[in-house]
Amino acid sequence: MKHLSSIVLAVALMAAGATACFKDPTSSLRNGPSRIQLDRSSVFLSVGDSIAVNAEAKDAAGNTFGAGDAVWTSSAPTVIAVRRDTSVTIPGDAFSRAFLRAAAPGLSWVYVTTHGLTDSVQAYGLPQTFSGAITTPAGSMMGDTISIAATSVLGFTSATTVTIGGTAAYIISQTPTLIKVMAAEPAAAGSAVVLGHLQMLGVIDLSLTADTHIGVAATIRANGWSPANQDPATAPAFNLVDLYTSPIIGVVTAAVPDNYWKFTTPATADSVEFTVEWGTDADIDVAILNATGTACISALLPGSCYSTMGSSANPEVGRWRLAAATTYVINPEVYTLGAAAAVTYKITFRKLN
C-alpha cells in the first residue's frame, strides 16, 4: 500500500499542473486598453456642415477606459477642421467627442490618440456646387459640342449624366477630367447644366448632383430649330468627314416633319452607315437625296427611298455608297410622332470598310 505522503504529493502535483494550464480571465486587463472604438469610420460633409464623432478606449474584453485626455488632429485642417468637445462633462471621461467641420472640398484623415493608441476617421468635404470651366463653341452650326472641364476635386465617371435646360444631353466623349456633350433640345441662354454622378478625383465615386448655369451658344439653339434646315435649298452645310466624329441633333414636329442637312463627301468615295435614334414612341425614317433635295439616292440595302431603314425600329440603320467629292442632302422625316408633340433625334455616321 502506498504511503499517505505519496498520495498527497501526487494530488498536489496534479493540482499544480491544472493551475498551470488554466488562463486567468482577467489577464487582458493588466495591460490596459488595446484599441480605440470610433462610432464612425468615414463621414461625408457638404462644405460648411459639421458632425460629431465619439471615441472610446477599450480592452480585448470590451471594458471601457477613460478617454478624456484624447487628442484629435486633422491631416488637412483646411479641408476638415476638428475641435474636441469641452462644453459637456462626460461622466467618468468614458469617451471623447469631437466635432468635424468641412471647410473646403477634399479628403482629410482625422486622428484620435489616447492611452498611446491612435485610430482615424476618413472625412470628405463635398462641394456644394460644381464650378468647373464650361465652354461653348462659336462658328460652325453642326458637329459642335459643349465642353465641361473638371475641378481639382470633382470629375466624371462612366455614369456621369448631363442635362441642359432639363433635357438629357448626348455625351460625345468623356474622361475623368473632361466631358463633351451636345444639347438634345433648344435651350435658352442661361439654361441650367445639371451634372449627376460626379467623382471626387482620386478618392471615391459618389452619387452627387450639382448645378451650374451657362449661356448656351446660339449655334446649339439653332441645331434643331433653325428655319434653314426646313428647306433643302437652305440646308446647313458641313463635311461628311466631320460627321464621323460628331452627330447631327435635330427636332421634328407635326408642323415641321422634315429636316434637311447638306453634306459633302471627301475626295474618296465612301460606303457609309447612318444610324438614327430617338427617345419616344415615334418612328423616324431617313433618306439620302441629291444636292437639291429632289431625288433619292439608292441605298446598299433593299427598299424604297424612306423605308430603306425599316419600320418602327429604334435605332434604325441604313447604308449607302456615296460618290467622291459630291454634295448630298440627308432628310430625317417623321413617319409618326406617337404620343409626343416633338421628337428629338440623333443621327450618327460611320465609314464602312
Number of domain units: 3
Question: Rg, please?
Answer: 35 Å
Helix content: under 10%
Per CATH, which architecture of the largest domain? Sandwich
DSSP strand tally: 26
Low-confidence stretches: 4-22
**CATH classification, class level of the largest domain:** Mainly Beta
Distance between the termini: 108 Å
Query: What string, H for helix and E for strand, traces the elements in order?
Result: HEEEEEEEEEEEEEEEEEEHEHEEEEEEE
Count of helices? 3
Structural class: mainly beta
Principal-axes shape call: rod-shaped
In the CATH hierarchy, the third-tier topology of the largest domain is known as Jelly Rolls
Integer average pLDDT: 79
List keywords for this structure.
8% helix; 353 residues; Jelly Rolls; 3 domains; rod-shaped; Immunoglobulin-like
Walk me through the structure.
With 353 residues, the protein is mainly beta. The chain folds into three domains: 30-126, Immunoglobulins (Immunoglobulin-like); 134-217; 226-351, Jelly Rolls (Sandwich). Helix content is 8%, strand content 44%. The chain is built from three helices and 26 strands. It has helices at residues 4-21, 218-225, 240-243, and strands at residues 35-38, 42-46, 50-58, 64-65, 71-74, 80-84, 96-102, 106-114, 117-126, 134-135, 146-149, 154-164, 167-168, 170-174, 178-182, 192-200, 204-205, 209-213, 237-239, 248-253, 261-264, 270-278, 283-289, 316-322, 327-336, 342-351. Strands 1, 3, 4, 6 and 7 form a five-stranded antiparallel beta sheet that branches. Strands 12, 13, 16, 17 and 18 form a five-stranded antiparallel beta sheet that branches. Strand 3 (50-58) and strand 4 (64-65) form a beta hairpin.
